[in-house]
Amino acid sequence: MVSIELVAFAIGVIYGFVNPGKEDRLNILKKALIIGIVVGLLIGLVVAFFVPVVGILVAGVGALSFALVALYFTIFFVIGTFIGDALERIRK
Hints:
Layout lengths: L3 H15 L6 H26 L4 H37 L1
Helix pairs in contact: 1-3, 2-3
């Protein structure tokens, strides 16, 4: 069974190899953090409509968890971009 971390890493290698030049890795991490927070808040707010008593807590925990998960997989992606950039330099 293929792990999702390996998939994120492979996509990072491909991304780093296909895109010319060095990647802006800090920008990639920032975007992942923002996307994780937004998705977490949206899912938390949807759940909050079904369980209104703990709605605020669910939205906050959802945003934090999705941000951490997004960062976790983005780290594998960014490591893959390092390898992809190295392969690109070797190819030239």
